[in-house]
Write a structure and sequence with these properties.
- By secondary structure, the protein is mostly beta strands.
- Helices cover about 10% and strands about 70% of the residues.
- It has one helix at about 1-15, and strands at about 25-35, 40-50, 55-65, 70-80, 80, 85-105, 110-130, 135-145, 150-160.
- The chain has an eight-stranded antiparallel beta barrel.
- The longest helix has 15 residues, at about 1-15.
- The radius of gyration is 20 Å and the shape is elongated.
- It starts with a helix and ends with a strand.
Length: about 160
């Protein structure tokens, strides 16, 4: 019995000490929202806590449309399913803040307004590793605005550099 427990312990320890643990990457992305119908660009930073678990910090800027532009900051949790040495599929869950900024003319001059919404999202993503340092990634997720009865599908594609 002790040999079996010891063997399982060694096996689990070896599985947990893979090169992905502690991996940090940063990248750029482009995104599109189905409700807003506007493109955006952004930055992300990713950190692997374990072979399967990663957090992703996102900051996006959405281009101006009808005198309104947006910004978004989010934190996502990813669970990697390794489909080979270079391919990872992952479900994702996240929370964040979406802001809409607008400027408009009034009778007394220019006015500006900012509306902020807490968001939650869930979806799926895929990473494709190119060599030791480059990673292509794509995500599709459903994003829900907590304070409004509004949701949208977000599409994202990006490239990251692994340190």
């Amino acid at each position: 019995m002790r040999k079996t427990v010891f063997t399982l312990f060694i096996l689990l320890t070896c599985m947990a000490t893979r090169a992905d643990i502690g991996e940090f990457s940063f990248g750029v992305q482009t995104a599109y929202g189905s409700h807003d119908k506007v493109m955006g660009i952004g930055l992300n930073a990713k950190y692997n806590f374990s072979y399967h678990t990663r957090i992703n910090l996102l900051a996006d800027y959405f281009f101006k449309k009808n005198d309104v532009w947006g910004s978004e900051f989010a934190l996502e949790w990813n669970y990697h399913v390794h489909l080979g040495d270079n391919l990872r599929l992952y479900p994702l869950l996240g929370i964040g803040m979406r802001n809409y900024h607008s400027h408009y003319d009034t009778l007394i001059g220019k006015e500006s307004d900012v509306e902020g919404y807490f968001i939650g999202n869930g979806g799926v993503g895929i990473d494709y590793l190119i060599g030791d340092h480059l990673m292509l990634n794509s995500e599709i997720k459903y994003q829900r605005f907590f304070s409004e009865n509004v949701g949208q599908v977000m599409f994202m594609i990006g490239v990251s550099y692994r340190l």
